[in-house]
Amino acid sequence: MAPDSPAQRQTPAPRYFTWDEVAQHSGREEERWLVIERKVYDISEFTRRHPGGSRAISHYAGQDATDPFEAFHIDKGLVRKYMNSLLIGELSPEQPSFEPTKNKELLDEFRELRATAERMGLMQANYVFFLLHLLHILLMDVAAWLTLWFFGTSFVPFIVCAVLLSTVQVNALGYLGVHSISSHRTRWMQEAGEANGAAELGAPASWWNHLHSQHHAKPNCFRKDPDINMHPFFFALGKILSVELGKQKKKYMPYNHQHKYFFLIGPPALLPLYFQWYVFYFVIQRKKWVDLAWMISFYARFSLTYVPLLGLKGFLGLFFMVRFLESNWFVWVTQMNHIPMHIDHDRNKDWFSTQLQATCNVHKSPFNDWFSGHLNFQIEHHLFPTMPRHNYHKVAPLVQSLCAKYGIKYQSKPLLSAFADIVHSLKESGQLWLDAYLHQ
């Protein structure tokens, strides 16, 4: 039998769906669909193989993921080739290109803003900037060792060394964050940056990517952002969730005092008591053996460098002192942009509104830029997660203009005010919980 001619072969008719049909495929048990540029994809099986982690992509099941797709992926042409096998149809012609919960005009203008930023070259990294940043990390590392070698191991040199090393650690965390969601065009450079950051920090790059991708995908969304997983077992967060907790008569902690015990179980304890063991659990459970090797290299280098100078007890004291100082920095700097902001369940708002309601900035200054690793521009960091951090201040005026046009609050604070707002927000949400607990 002769093969069919091109005229005889017919392309299967595309399947059409409505937004309501897509929204019904959002759970863990049934099929999970999402929409990108009006195309409908079945991600049910793919989530386990998603390079950004299964949860980050699953958080958009049943929703339009066009803007997070644009935000997170650098080589979109390459990614789309892998997406073809997941394609199951598209939105019906009569369906709008945006969901009913989203502002079409704002959505379109933000996409134009992103295109403008790309035309301005703001997604391109200045490699000299990152090279200098890496060199200053290495110089501080050397300075810490020279302090003990030259001045001895008495109390003052010991503390100076601990401060220098904790600064090295937090700057390495910034270096890791820059490369885990980066604008680098080649994979080997990204992996090199992640490995270096992991080696300096003693934590797996895969762990950082796993948590941070979720945080960026759905910031301050309960059960989707791991950065607020301390609710409700340790803290009652946000005005909405705190009242819900009180109405449900749940009391895991005395939340009306949480602004006080935050100083005991928050900044000083997170890294030494929790992350220290959890990162090993994470990497072994997920069989990330390359990450484990980099982690072990950090501990081996650290011990071989300082045990000869301090002895075993002195080395352990230095290690936990560094972790203590690093933990305080980590909690205050990472939480000042989010804990005081709106915290809620996922309401499926547009990308721009989702990021703005969950983040705030800290005023630009040479010290704030360095101290926070440019994360004082948290709004821009969230809107454009692949943008190199040295370009945040350049795109900030465009973001502010868009906020002003649509009446969206663009918050920027002094550093100390941002720190104080963490405590104020915990006190307020704790009182809201108490009022609901006693009177509802």
Mean pLDDT reading = 87
Low-confidence segments: 5-9, 177-200
Going by CATH, what is the homologous superfamily of the domain at 16-100? Cytochrome b5-like heme/steroid binding domain
Rounded to the nearest angstrom, the distance between the terminal CA atoms is: 78 Å
Strand segment tally:
6
CATH class of the domain at 16-100: Alpha Beta
Which CATH architecture of the domain at 16-100 is right?
Roll
Radius of gyration: 24 Å
Strand order of the largest sheet: 1-4-3-2
Instruction: Give the strand content.
Output: under 5%
CATH topology label of the domain at 16-100:
Flavocytochrome B2, Chain A, domain 1
- How are helices and strands ordered from N to C? EHEEHHHEHHHHHHHHHHEHHHEH
Overall spatial form:
globular
Helical segment count: 18
Helicity level, as a percent range? 55-70%
How would you characterize the largest beta sheet? 4 strands, mixed
Q: What is the chains' assembly state? A: single chain
Quickly give the structural class: mainly alpha
